[in-house]
């Protein structure tokens, strides 16, 4: 987005071309550092990233990526999401073009131009990457608030300041209402949920569970369900995966059964479960001990539309006879 803005300024003659070259060199160096670090930590970074991104649309063809873009905004507007929390941003999405129009009418061209360039750059970046992720919308919020500041300045300078004050108060009150309403919908405390798990599993244990347990409960020794997507490709069994990594506990939420039953609709979350989920059930029945089961309507199901819809539950299994299969 910054590069696009700078390019326009250079073409317009407001900036020197050497500034653009320095920007490219600096951005290239920073990018190079991150690429080197990526290969340092994972020599197969490109192949692994491609394998991870494939079910998320990263490797889709250009026309498919383009067709997915309108649906991305449709989902944002209607708060449709997988496991990401997607707050109600209807007001922001409706007001953005309105604020943009007010800025143009009132000849506040600089903030309007910056916001337009930011919006275009954001969409180009999304299109190139191909991963239409809901949290990425946060990158557009600064431009929304920039335009909101323009509108507030306009309202404060109109002849009838009372009307301007009333409009500002209504907008702020509605924004506060949406925020509070979003907070009170969260009925289950995550700290209570994690405390419940901690009472059954030591913090230094190796665990297979959801990715949101990592670094909060198990000091980086948590293995995510997402890793299991590659078992079929490698012709690798679920039991071998557990034994080779000396995994001691498995935390199984209700959502896995739901995703498996309703596949392939929710395959985007953990990949296709059809290969390893039946093996999981068999392994927990034959080689594990059920140490706990508790209700968790908010975290036993992480699909946003289904959270709190039922008394979802979580099971904790302790794996028996942990030993490396390589010995």
Brief write-up:
The radius of gyration is 25 Å and the shape is globular. The chain starts with a helix and ends in an 8-residue tail after the last strand.
Please tell me about this protein's structure.
The chain has 327 residues and is α/β, with parallel strands linked by helices. The chain folds into 2 domains: 61-184, no CATH class; 190-319, no CATH class. Helix content is 54%, strand content 8%. It is built from 13 helices and 5 strands. The chain has a 5-stranded mixed sheet. Helix 7 packs antiparallel against helix 8. The mean pLDDT is 84.
Please name the defining characteristics of this protein.
5-stranded mixed beta sheet; alpha/beta; 327 residues
Tell me the layout of helices and strands:
Elements: H1 2-12, H2 17-41, H3 45-53, H4 62-77, H5 90-105, H6 109-129, H7 141-156, H8 161-184, H9 190-198, E1 207-209, E2 222-224, H10 238-244, E3 249-253, H11 254-261, H12 267-270, H13 277-287, E4 288-295, E5 313-319
Parallel strand pairs: 1-2, 1-3
Antiparallel strand pairs: 3-5, 4-5
